[in-house]
Amino acid sequence: MLAERWSCQARVLALSGQGRFVRSRSLRIPLRAALCGAACLAGFSMQNAYAQSDTQSAATPLTPTEVANLRAEILRQQRQIQEQQRELYLQTLRLNDQQNLLNSELQKLTGTGTGTAADAAPQTATTGSTQGTTGTTSSDTQGATQTAQTAEPASPNAPSAAPISGPSPQQQEERRVLQTAHELSNTGGVLTPKGDLVVDPSIEYDYWNQNEVNISGFSVVPGITFGNINVQRVQANYETTAVTLRYGVTNRLELNMKVPVVYATGTTTTQPLGPNAQVFSPGASAFNIGDIQLGASYQINAGNDGWPIFLGNVLLKTATGTSPFDVPIYTTQDPNGLYIAGIQKTLPTGTGFYTLEPNVTMLLPTSPAVLFANILYGINFSRTVQIQNTAGGPSTSASIGPGNYISGTFGVGFAVNDQTSMTFSYQQEHVWPTSENGTNLGGSSYDFGTFNFGLGFQVTKNINVNLGAGIGVGPNNPVAKILLEVPIRFQL
Question: How many C-beta atoms surround the C-beta of residue 334 within 10 A?
Answer without folding.
Answer: 15
